[in-house]
Amino acid sequence: MVRERNAVMSKSVGFIGGGRITRIFLEGWTRAHKLPDSITVSDPNAETLTKLKARFPAIRTTPDSAQAAAGEIVFLAVHPPAMAEATTAIKGALKPDALVVSLAPKFTLAKLSGLLGGFARLARVIPNAPSIVNFGFDPVAFAPVLSAADKAEITDLLAPLGECPEVAEDKLEAYAVLTAQAPTFFWFQLQALREVASGFGLSEAEIAPAMKRMVCGTARTLLESGLTASEVMDLIPVKPLGEMEPQVAEMYRTRLPAIYQKIKP
């Protein structure tokens, strides 16, 4: 197993796009001491590349996406509106035996293959931000042509970032709402709670472990206690924000389906 992991770390990796998700991957790999030996990141923004190079001196940066696309494993780390332009720019630079991994919703494997001139050695991943601390949930769907060895190369790269279960491709956009976007639903609330707790006299060293345990325990109680949702919500009789719950729940029921429809292929 160690030999296999070293082998995938020695693969040349390219990122088309140097934005947030590329930084999340690089940070996660660095924290796990699993940063691949050869990484090239392309981006048209010189400032973006300068900042990445300063943070990760071992990587190579370039404005030329064709150079990044010459890697053995190539990540398409661009937003859906930029996908057509990005794939057009690199399709002539891909090696026949490369693996191309899209990190964006909306563009199916079939559509990506069409944009890449019939290239079919593809996978799609819906990454989520906790990958930066190696606690991500990054579901992956593979093109039918990929072998078990191909899939293993991709999952070995993803594994240091967190869990990376193989899922059906038509489930990916649902995961984009459930796991990729969901941290934004909670971060501002948790930060406000953190600040309030600090005002009560708790130190950061006291707040951090308590908050981590509370968040994980909250989810596990809902999902693993064997109680109904109503029974779980009745475990604590005093609800200081109870009057706001109907409005928040209604926002989930109306806004999230609209987002899902927007990102569906």
Descriptive report:
With 265 residues, this protein is α/β, with parallel strands linked by helices. It is built from twelve helices and nine strands. It has a seven-stranded mixed sheet, sandwiched between helices. It has a two-stranded parallel sheet with strand order 7-9. Helix 5 links the parallel strand 4 (73-76) and strand 5. Mean pLDDT is 95; it is low at 1-5.
Topology:
Blueprint: H1 2-9, E1 12-16, H2 20-31, E2 38-42, H3 46-55, E3 60-62, H4 65-68, E4 73-76, H5 80-90, E5 99-102, H6 109-115, E6 122-125, E7 136-137, E8 140-142, H7 148-158, E9 162-163, H8 172-180, H9 183-199, H10 204-224, H11 229-233, H12 245-263
Gyration radius from CA atoms, angstroms? 21 Å
Helix percentage range: 40-55%
The largest sheet is: 7 strands, mixed
Let me know the number of strands.
9
Number of helices: 12
Overall form: globular
Structural class: alpha/beta
Cα(first) to Cα(last) distance is 37 Å
Tell me the strand percentage band. 5-15%
- Helix/strand order: HEHEHEHEHEHEEEHEHHHHH
Q: Strands of the largest sheet, in order across it?
A: 3-2-1-4-5-6-8
Provide mean pLDDT, rounded: 95
List keywords for this structure.
265 residues, alpha/beta, two-stranded parallel sheet, 9 strands, globular
